[in-house]
Amino acid sequence: MDNRPIGFLDSGVGGLTVVKEMMRQLPEEEIVFIGDQARAPYGPRPAEQIREFTWQMVNFLLTKNVKMIVIACNTATAVVWQEIKEKLDIPVLGVILPGASAAIKATQTGKVGIIGTPMTIKSDAYRQKIQALSPETTVESLSCPRFAPIVESNEMASSVAKKVVYETLASMVGKVDTLIMGCTHYPLLRPIIQNVMGKQVKLIDSGAETVRDVSVLLNYFEINRSRKDIRGDHRFYTTASPKGFREIAEQWLGQEINVEHVEL
Ligand code: DGL
After folding, report:
1. Which pLDDT value is given to residue 231?
2. Which domain holds residue 12?
3. Total domain count, the chain
4. What does pTM read for this prediction?
5. Does 183 contact ligand 1 (Cβ within 6 A)?
6. Among 91, 77, 71, which Cα is nearest to 4's?
7. Ligand 1 centroid to 51 CA: how many Å?
8. Of 61, 68, 201, 253, which residue is least crowded by CB atoms under 10 Å?
């Protein structure tokens, strides 16, 4: 048993798609979340900056005495997960490997698509992981630089969101039977993405897949929170305005939350 919280980080609200799955699959666990909204999106930034900002969030989470860290951001996972995992003595999970494995299991035709931020696509991390595990699977990659900003500005239901998703995904339609939403912001656009791709295409939520791995690791290291202690005492931090964060978060999580501003 270990009643310390689990830390989650993202450039912004995208990591909440992982948190929502956490609350569903492991409701007894306590969560500390940080979103670096003041500096989002990370996707178009140079790798060195993403590395620096991600370490700042990791160090912040360590001050909260977390027992595990989930890098709930594909962009940060692509750039710096390996390094963080090697340096810390608590388990550190990224979202790319779980998403890649789930896509290999899901595809029937061996044709997988991956959409993500410019940095995630440039890193080629998904293609490399998929082809290392399943060399015969082909991977179509597409950078979607406009998706995360739409989510950050809470415009998921707008006509602009529909237009941008339709236009951006046009070149992917009909080419794959499985599409990895390789950015934790994208599940907030899921209905539009599904509509564009067609209902026969299986969408993989890399964050949701990661929560299954969280569960396995908690069991393996025997560091689950005791079930009697469900308190739902989650804490959320943003580097921008708590008001903007709260609006999206409460709508997405379907519950009231505590949000504080933090300077990194
Ligand atoms: N949510 C992040 C990801 O999974 C990053 C989006 C961004 O800041 O560009 O890649």
Report:
1. 66
2. 6-94+208-261
3. 2
4. 0.95
5. yes
6. 91
7. 13
8. 253
Position in ligand 1 atom list of the atom nearest CA 42 = 8
Catalytic residues: 73, 183
Instruction: State the pLDDT at residue 211.
Output: 95
Q: Ligand 1: does its nearest atom lie under 6 Å from the Cβ of 11?
A: yes
* Residue 249 Cβ contacting ligand 1 at under 6 Å: no
Say whether both 132 and 121 belong to one domain: yes
Confidence of residue 253 (pLDDT cuts 50, 70, 90): very high
Give the tens place of pLDDT for each residue, 132-182: 999 999 999 999 999 999 999 999 999 999 999 999 999 999 999 999 999
C-alpha of residue 119 to centroid of ligand 1, in Å: 9
Which helix (DSSP H) or strand (DSSP E) does residue 216 occupy?
A: helix 206-221
Q: What is the pLDDT of residues 195-245, one digit of tens each?
A: 999 999 999 998 889 999 999 999 999 999 987 666 668 999 999 999 999
Are 112 and 103 within 8 A, CB to CB? Answer: yes
Q: Tell whether ligand 1 has an atom less than 6 A from the beta carbon of residue 17.
A: no
* Same domain as 60, residue 15: yes
Same domain, 189 and 111: yes
Give the domain CATH number at 105.
3.40.50.1860
Whether cis (ω within 30° of 0) applies to the bond prior to 27 is: no
By C-alpha distance, which of 102, 118, 121, 104 is closest to 207? 102
Closest C-alpha to ligand 1, atom 2:
73
103 and 124 both lie in a single domain: yes
Same domain, 187 and 85: no
Say if strands 259-261 and 68-71 run parallel, antiparallel, or are unpaired: unpaired
Interatomic CA distance for residues 216 and 115, integer angstroms: 27
1: in domain: no
Same domain for 195 and 119? yes
147 lines ligand 1 (CB under 6 A): no
